[in-house]
Write a structure and sequence with these properties.
Elements: H1 15-27, E1 30-36, E2 42-48, E3 50-52, E4 55-61, H2 65-72, E5 75-82, E6 91-102, H3 107-114, H4 119-122, E7 132-146, H5 152-157, H6 159-162, E8 164-168
């Protein structure tokens, strides 16, 4: 179901759209992560992530603004941009989520590292950082996208009315 930007959306029941959203989340590695400070100030940072165990995993420093904010408020938002066309704005998948700080020696982390699931976020010496911590981000079930699963010509002709879609990650995919 295509929805109009700026109006309430009803989740799409199209299993193909759900599959496309899941594929973007699982195969991309860059996102922006929005947090809110204890003073109510928003902060957005670009992050590298790995998808594993139904969550996005990010590595950061415990002293970073995002980690300090997550420690006091676990409610975050994520936008995953990706290119479908060489021109125009990128398409996106975006959702609200719950984040938690996870210690480097937590069994969930050590198991994922041993299985090679966190290669993107464990490279570049991050595991040697004494202030390092992982962030586990669990998406809320309702996920929004822009430009994903939309005919590019329709998107170019009418970007305000054809680009936005909503799906539920917990919907069953029937084939």
């Amino acid at each position: 179901m295509t929805t109009i930007t700026g109006t309430p959306t009803t989740p799409d029941s199209d299993p193909k759209q759900l599959g496309k959203v899941r594929k973007v989340i699982e195969t991309k590695t860059f996102a922006t992560l929005a947090t809110t400070s204890p003073a109510g100030r928003p902060h957005v940072a670009g992050v590298l992530y790995d998808e594993a165990d139904g969550a996005l995993w990010v590595h950061t420093m415990r002293s970073s603004r995002k980690a300090r904010s997550i420690a006091t408020n676990p409610h975050v938002a994520v936008v995953i941009p990706f290119r479908k066309l060489p021109a125009g704005p990128p398409s996106t998948v975006q959702f609200q989520a719950t984040a938690e700080l996870v210690e480097m020696d937590d069994p969930r982390v050590t198991e994922l590292l041993a299985a090679g699931e966190l290669k993107t976020v464990s490279a570049h010496g991050t595991l040697d950082e004494p202030d390092g911590v992982f962030v586990r981000i669990v998406p809320n079930p309702t996920v929004h996208s822009y430009g994903l699963g939309v005919n590019p010509i329709d998107l170019i002709r009418d970007p305000l009315h054809t680009g936005a879609r909503t799906v539920r990650l917990d919907a069953e995919v029937t084939r």
